[in-house]
Design goal:
binds adenosine-5'-diphosphate; 52% helix; binds magnesium ion; alpha/beta; binds shikimate-3-phosphate; magnesium ion binding
């Protein structure tokens, strides 16, 4: 299938590697968080602050299912998306899913230095952040592991990802 969903914990690299993989294949690129932001006219952080997480989960579900996907597309999802509603089954029915796996320590150092705020983390830092990620990842990983492919988020390359998904550049 010519649609690949990138999934995994916040900070694993879905947005940045989705863009690179799409460019490498000559595919379209969609980041569902960016679609939600454009449709709602506000950032994810503003959406959480004004509507709360429950409303965000309903909205991201609508965005996943309503997006009019072009052919040949790489879709970067938000880190929580696979863990709500029927999303894992839905994505596996509509394309390939690729889980980018990273340890809580590596995730936390990336998230501490990231420019995009993640409201779920509530500004946590240091050891408190690592512990929070360990706990949250344990809750979420059962969903992520239902992905078609699993790759390590360390030493990634576009060539490696292209080989994993088995697609040819257009
Ligand atoms: N392979 C990598 N090595 C080091 N830093 C990375 C790597 N991939 C992504 N990052 C950085 O990690 C942060 C989170 O990346 P991002 O693509 O936004 O992740 P996600 O969309 O999964 O939350 C960004 O600051 C990005 O520059
Ligand atoms: O894991 C989560 O619950 C979230 C991850 C974020 O996306 P990234 O995984 O791209 O940071 C974004 O959808 C929102 O802040 C909630
Ligand atoms: Mg992202």
């Amino acid at each position: 299938m010519s649609c690949v969903y990138l999934i995994g914990f916040m900070g694993c690299g879905k947005t940045s590697w989705g863009k690179k993989l799409a460019a490498g294949l000559g595919y379209n690129f969609i980041d569902l968080d960016h679609v939600l932001e454009a449709q709602a006219g506000m950032t994810i952080a503003e959406y959480f602050a004004s509507h709360g997480e429950e409303a965000f989960r309903r909205r991201e579900s609508e965005v996943l299912k309503q997006t009019d996907y072009p052919e040949n597309v790489i879709v970067s999802t938000g880190g929580g998306l696979p863990c709500f509603f029927d999303h894992m089954d839905w994505m596996n029915d509509h394309g390939q899913t690729l889980y980018i796996q990273l340890s809580p320590k590596a995730l936390s150092s990336r998230l501490e230095n990231a420019k995009t705020p993640r409201p779920v983390l509530q500004g946590k830092k240091g050891e408190e952040l690592v512990e929070f990620i360990e706990h949250k990842l344990a809750e979420r990983e059962g969903y992520y592991l239902q992905a078609t492919h699993h790759v390590s988020g360390i030493d990634m390359s576009v060539e490696g990802l292209v080989e994993v998904v088995g697609l040819t550049a257009i």
